[in-house]
Design goal:
The chain is an alpha+beta fold. The chain is 49% helix and 14% strand.
């Protein structure tokens, strides 16, 4: 049996070890972000070079479903390299005040972007070709979190097929 004198130091050492291990991991998780869509013409050019669609995550800061989608689906898939060679993911928050560069190289607001794509409901994922045309089935809201990854993969596959066949759809 352990005496209190030997148990507490062991417990403290285990706690310190746990903090040393978990601390850096939580910092990595906190640093994981989806890039902001600051310049969609540059994003479109990069997507063209890679032969992949651009996926725009339209979000709001106060949207709990957006946080769920970001934290439980998009960031883990991004961290696991599920999007490499399949898409470029960027995010547009509808609260964004500074303008962004659209696919037509013109300055627009986040709200103007959402209005153009009729993407005012958040979260929305848009699957776009290098010119900004919608080429995959958009995902609006979260109807079933357990199946969302499957729906996301289907929309990515549809957009990839459109990109690789050279025929915009939708």
């Amino acid at each position: 049996m352990f005496s209190k004198a030997t148990f507490y130091p062991r417990k403290s050492a285990a706690l310190i070890l746990l903090l040393l291990i978990a601390g850096p991991l939580s910092l990595l998780a906190a640093e994981a972000v989806i890039p902001a869509a600051d310049n969609l013409i540059n994003t479109g050019q990069a997507a063209r070079q890679l032969g992949v669609p651009t996926v725009v995550f339209v979000s709001r800061a106060a949207c709990p479903y957006c946080r769920t989608l970001r934290d439980q689906i998009l960031l883990p898939m991004q961290h696991a390299n599920k999007f490499v060679d399949r898409m470029i993911l960027v995010e547009i928050s509808l609260e964004r005040v500074e303008p962004l560069t659209g696919f037509d190289n013109k300055q627009i607001t986040a709200q103007e972007f959402a209005d153009h794509y009729q993407a005012g409901i958040t979260p929305t994922l848009l699957f776009l070709d290098p010119e900004g045309r919608e080429i995959g089935r958009r995902l609006v809201g979260i109807s079933n979190l357990e199946l969302y990854g499957h729906y996301l993969q289907e929309s990515i596959d549809e957009a990839l097929l459109a990109i690789r066949s050279g025929l915009p759809e939708g």
